[in-house]
Please model this.
Amino acid sequence: MKPEIDYTLYLVTDRELMSSATIEENVEQAIRGGCTLVQLREKKASSRCFYETALRVRQITRRMGVPLIINDRADIAAAVDADGVHVGQEDMPPEAVRKIIGPDRILGVSAGTLDEALTAERDGADYLGIGAMYATGTKTDAALTGMDELRDIRRRIKLPIVAIGGINKETVLSFAGTGIDGIAVVSAIVSRPDVETAARELKALFIKRRNPE
Amino acid sequence: MKPEIDYTLYLVTDRELMSSATIEENVEQAIRGGCTLVQLREKKASSRCFYETALRVRQITRRMGVPLIINDRADIAAAVDADGVHVGQEDMPPEAVRKIIGPDRILGVSAGTLDEALTAERDGADYLGIGAMYATGTKTDAALTGMDELRDIRRRIKLPIVAIGGINKETVLSFAGTGIDGIAVVSAIVSRPDVETAARELKALFIKRRNPE
Model:
């Protein structure tokens, strides 16, 4: 059975941007601040380094009760018994990943447009990462997804949706009323001097807009 | 059941060095020249590109009756139903890869020393790639393995052994009497103007030394 996932505050790691000495510290602080889901993303590390980091991060997320998603690498996800895999449009197609990870792991797919979102839903995604919503230092070549497109996707797709790309204390306010399930955040958490507080503040700001009284 | 593999002439692809317009052409020409095994290696391509190339190369190797090994990525090997995976010391550990690919696919491991070779054998490798034997443009930072070390490894290890690293029409002569099963070749095949003839000539030179009358 697939685990129940709380998508509210989805941490995506970045070794180059992080303020902490290690990924493990960074992740632990972010979870203490309220991150509900962690994606380990290693775009430049060797496979051995990615695998060994995933083993260490897996211990932290298990101990703290938060699911771990592995970016791009279905083999590493299966090898470390992670909770799922996230693939972008330049990664393996969702159907191929599903064959490796089986029916019980979570499969997330990035989509920038309604077409990509509908395709990902049809191909077996469990949730969608929609964006990039705002310009970001971590994906400088990304085309931006408009708010209208995000609302269209929300109307047409039943899967959980998280927005990603340039989400910080200012831009998070713009998701009020969009009906998304969560926000995925890189630099506005991992690069902050106080990772835990940054996570806590962003989460409070988002929840207030998602669930208005 | 594992397939029987002929390790005599093992082609390792290189998109940047190849003389042909496409990897598929390059591989087809090399197999026509007598390559007995193909490893698809894509160190810079996106996962999507690697996967799609593997699907196309898989068609060629199937049609021509030669096994296909995928470098580093157990998920891509499983997804395209390749015959095996090859990992280096910077890739996932052999035991972790074995869990993904199952008992019936071939698992190759790179080793530069007797210690690494013994470890790889213990960890479930089906064959070893020993080297780099000679300086090479494709792995400029590789430490070289000496001929004495290669002979030591051959004496101590029962697995099939292929030598790799800077093997060309001159250096191939040095493997006479070493008892290795095959040679793995990158640039001396893939970058030649006539890939097919380059493969045929290298194979004849190696076989003559491996099986002296």
